[in-house]
Structures are given as C-alpha cells and as structure tokens.
Amino acid sequence: MTYCVGVLVEEGLVMVADTRTNAGLDDISTYRKLHHFNVPGERVMMLASAGNLSITQSVLSMLQEGVPGEEDDEPPQKLVEAPTMFQAAQLIGRAIRRVRAIEKDGFEAANIRFSISLLFGGQIGNGEMRLYLIYSAGNFIECSTDAPFLQIGEHKYGKPILDRAVRYTTELYDALKVSLVSMDSTMRSNLGVGLPIDIALVRRNALTLEVNHRIEAGEGYFHDLRERWSAALRAAHRAIPRPPYGPADK
Amino acid sequence: MTYCVGVLVEEGLVMVADTRTNAGLDDISTYRKLHHFNVPGERVMMLASAGNLSITQSVLSMLQEGVPGEEDDEPPQKLVEAPTMFQAAQLIGRAIRRVRAIEKDGFEAANIRFSISLLFGGQIGNGEMRLYLIYSAGNFIECSTDAPFLQIGEHKYGKPILDRAVRYTTELYDALKVSLVSMDSTMRSNLGVGLPIDIALVRRNALTLEVNHRIEAGEGYFHDLRERWSAALRAAHRAIPRPPYGPADK
C-alpha cells in the first residue's frame, strides 16, 4: 500500500509520502514515491505516486526522457519543459495514456488492473502554485481552497485529522505537522504503509525546496510526535464526560 | 453507507450503529440497523447490519420467523431458540445462504452484488459473552481480547481512535464513549453515515439491556462530545512542537 498527502495553503505547499511497496505481504521493499523535478529559480515540481510500481516507474521515466507527441510530427516533451502547471499535468496524463497503450495487452492477458494515481504539485515562474490529483485515465482534479489537501493511496485513516485541522490559512509548518499526524494514523492502522517517510515543503514564489528530508525509523522528532499524539488522544477522550444514558427503557 | 461498531470488554458489550441508508446520493432514508433479540433473564442478542437493505431485511425476517433446516426433515429454527451464541451465529450464516439461494438468479440478472455483513453479539444463559462478524458467505470470525472490537461498513475513518483507545480492560461506559467518538469521525468524513445513532449496552451476565437508546440530531450529550473532541484534537496538534526540518539539502 501507499499513503501520500499534499497540502496547499496560503504560504505554500507540503507533500508527504511513505516508501513501502509490497507485492503481497511477504514481499515488502522500500521505494521512493515522492519525486522532484526542479530548476531552482525557475520551477519546482513534485510528483507522488501510488498504484502499480511498474506503471508509476514507466510514467516517471517517460516524463524524464520525453513523452511522445500525440501527432506524428509533434516532438517528445519532458516534464521540466512544460510552460505551466496545467500543461504539465496534461503532459503527465498523456504519459499515463501512453504507458497504458503499451502495457494494455499484457496487463489484460495477466488479468492485472491498470492502476495508478499521482499527486502533482508545484509552481512555474510567476504562475500560480497548484496541486493536482491525476487518475489512471489521465484525467485530473485540482485542489481547492475550501478543502486544501489531496490524498492518494490508503487515504481514509488519515483523513479525519486533515478534515478537522487543515484550512487554507493554516501556517506552512503546521500543515507539515498535521500531514505527519495524518501519516502516523495511517501507519498505525495499515501495516502496508511505513517508514521511512519523504517530506518536501515549498514556500510560495520561492521556486526552490525549503525542506527535502527523509524521516527514518527512530528519528527523534517523528517519534516524539507519535508519542505526543497518542497521549493527547488518550487524554482527549478521557476528558469527555461519560455517556449519561441509563438503564434500558424496554 | 453504514457504520456499526461492537466493543466487547471485560465488563460487557457495547454496540453502536448509524441509521442512514442510501440508494444513490439522492435517495437517503433512515432505517434501524441495530436489532435486538432478547428474552430478559435468559438471553440478550444484538444484530447490526450493513450491505444491501433487501438482503439484511430478508435475513432478519427469516431469523424471526424461522430459518429452514438444511435437511428436509429438519424443522425451521428461530434465532431466539439457538442454544449457544456459536450456534446462533451458525444459524445466521445459514439464513444468509438461504437468502442467497433465493435471490441469486435475480441478483445476477440485474448485475447486483450479493453483499451483507453483520455484527452479532450477546450472551445466552451461563454461556460466554460473544461478538461475531458474519460475512456474505455466511462464515464468521469472533472478536478477540487483543483487539476487542469489530466494525462493519465504512470502518476506516473510525478505526484509528479504536486502535488507540480500546483495550479489553476498558470500562464499559468508556467503551461506549470511544465508540461514539469513532462514529463521529466517520460521520464527519463520510456523509453517507449519519444521525440518528442507535446504541446498546449490556453488562456481562446481566442478560438484559442496560442501555437501549437512540441519539437524535441535536441531542446535548452527543453534540457536546463532538465539540469537545474537535477542540481536543485541535489543541492536541497545536501542542506538538513544529517540525525542526530546515532548508533543503539540495
């Protein structure tokens, strides 16, 4: 399994992704799922992936080497050459459709579902900072200011805290903190999501990564965050009065 | 959607179920999903249902009127006649298989999935108090003391708090309180789960319901619980120090 979350607030963008992949419970590995396509001062783009690893890797490689054009005379285009975030998201969608066209027959023969989802966020030049969720069909949606986060993979365990704690006006490092709490909730309820965790943080208009860090098992801050959160939850439900409901009325 | 949770602790059993059913987002109704089969002093049994409403209602009616025997000379048996909780769970499994045999062709023709899951808990006479999760195939699992709760329906949003806060030694009314917090988390993240909520509480060896209550919209205690929980979560993540991660190393 995978869990990745992106939060786009007023001050900037945070992305957090786990690194655990599994082909069955007895075949677990660590793979980076959070990728950067940066030209400092010109653009900063991040792509987090969930789904079939062979598909996500092929899509990434195609975005690095150049996605073939849809017309014969159209030259291949690399992700770092896209002029706007919207056109970059379109290019990713095209790469997904290309990979599907190549793999379709083999996947059908082996009865494997073509499954991929991507979070794509960043900023190019003076353009708006954007965060997109791109689906298996290559179509995509954009993050809104009303619900300023998007998730892929095993998203339900970590959603309640985001629903409650993240607003468009939330400060950037608080958004990172809440994303880590959301990741912790997911890791605790689904063993298929695990450490290390990759995190990235970009301030609006900075056009370069302010944080690009991997949290390894046993790291002090994250360990402390998990302990404090657990203790706070226990204290929180203890502080609520007991239900007043009495003996049955029938 | 549906969310039901059962918690079996040392002191007894709690069951909580929402009441919202929907055939599409534009066709939402209120149906009781938590049912009682009680003979005070002799037995107390509770059944919470998720899945296709026509199936769950047919299974319930069959359990009330009598499930046909599997052999021709075997008389129909009612749920309230089962001699032990294990045999009662087996009888429910048989009822599900019976309904499936009746509905199978029609469901296949209409391309409807035969989907049902049930939480079944209670105690008969001097027997052990039990809590079972019964699947569409009629097979079932039993709740353990290591993880003293079972859930059906939209279970992921409400699982993190149960994982953290419920132990076999948790007091009975605390188990009810945490179940209500779990229900609140689910209702907040999935609009298909909603008020009113039915709750039931049985003390071990009491053989009668101690609480049998419906929480309606606007009820003071539940409203207060939701507010306090929200406030506590906000305070909890604010109390965690900010991430110490600095400018990117690349």
Automatic annotation (TrEMBL), chains A, B:
Keywords: Hydrolase, Protease, Proteasome. GO terms for biological process: proteolysis. InterPro entries: Ntn_hydrolases_N, UCP009120_prtse. One of its GO terms (cellular component) is proteasome complex. One of its GO terms (molecular function) is peptidase activity. The keyword Protease applies. SUPFAM superfamilies: N-terminal nucleophile aminohydrolases (Ntn hydrolases) (SSF56235). This is Proteasome-type protease. It comes from Methylobacterium fujisawaense. The lineage of its organism: Bacteria, Pseudomonadati, Pseudomonadota, Alphaproteobacteria, Hyphomicrobiales.
